[in-house]
Design brief:
- By secondary structure, the chain is of the alpha/beta class.
- It has a single domain, classed as Molybdenum Cofactor Biosythetic Enzyme, Chain A, CATH 3.40.980.10.
- The protein is built from 6 helices and 6 strands, in the order αβαβαβαβαββα.
- It has a 6-stranded mixed beta sheet, sandwiched between helices.
- Strand 5 and strand 6 form a beta hairpin.
- Helix 1 packs across helix 6.
- The longest helix has 24 residues.
- It is globular and about 45 Å long.
């Protein structure tokens, strides 16, 4: 690891304030295994979950939640799970990606690369994406528990505080 990355990580906030949004037409807060797991992992890492919801995959609902979180002073990151595939009802990618002011293409590229190592060419069906919207970090990951675990453990949890450090500079 370079000195600058190490220095940035050392200066990064200990707690990142996160919104967790599950996009699903079939899950409820009681059956949302992925969203609940994300919340648990964030809290175990010392981060705060300041908002949690399950919403249907309707672009207007997705955008409304994104805009609401972007306007809150107590939210640093919005983590979406679900709605990133290519099925007719998967519209979260379209709703969020066109709002991103800066894209972090490496997130989606790395997610698909890691996913490919586990599931093969079906990884290309994921439209995982991340970026910045109104000063907030935004990440979309597939909704399956396995995909969420991959994105959180390999990509998001290790870099979340560093990303927020960079956004605050």
């Amino acid at each position: 690891m370079s000195r600058s990355v190490a220095a940035h990580r050392a200066a990064a906030p200990e707690t990142v304030r996160c919104a967790v949004v599950t996009v699903s037409d079939s899950r409820t807060p009681e059956t949302d295994e992925s969203g609940q797991w994300i919340k648990e992992q964030l809290q175990a890492a010392g981060h705060a979950v300041v908002y949690y919801t399950v919403i249907p995959d309707e672009p207007s609902r997705v955008v409304a939640v994104l805009d609401e979180m972007a306007g809150r002073d107590d939210c640093d990151a919005v983590l979406f799970n679900g709605g990133t595939g290519i099925a007719r009802r998967d519209t979260t990618y379209e709703a969020v990606s066109q709002r991103l002011e800066k894209r972090l293409d490496g997130y989606g590229e790395l997610f698909r690369m890691l996913s490919y190592q586990e599931i093969g060419p079906a990884a290309m069906l994921s439209r995982a994406v991340a970026g910045v919207y109104r000063g907030k970090f935004v990440a979309l990951m597939p909704g399956s528990p396995h995909a969420v675990k991959l994105a959180m453990e390999k990509l998001l949890l290790p870099e979340l505080a560093h990303i927020i450090f960079e956004l605050r500079r």
